[in-house]
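Quick start: what a row looks like.
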Amino acid sequence: FKQKTAYEISLGLVGSEMCIRDRTKMTHLEYASLGIRAIGLSPGTVATDMQVAIRASGINPISQLSPNSHSPVERPAAIIAWLCTDDAKEFDGGDVSLNDEKIRQRAGVS
């Protein structure tokens, strides 16, 4: 086992994100005519039990974040519900971020 450098890890993450975004766009193009919508959501960190375990582990910089710095689970849930409406149709095939203030405003989420 060879420890990966931060650069190697970053390249892998960027590649993974690009694959997911391409897959979202492709799914939209292939299935939109059937009424199937595909939208990616980048939620950032969300206050879940997983974050509690990460914080307890002290394993990485995320584990050092205050519990208040994570989004409450209701926030991404509300944005997902909004993304299912016609008001968010312009994002079909794309990706939205929970950290985007304009997205949160349009979704009616603070």
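That is the whole record. The longest helix spans residues 6-31. Residues 22 and 82 are 22 Å apart (CA to CA).
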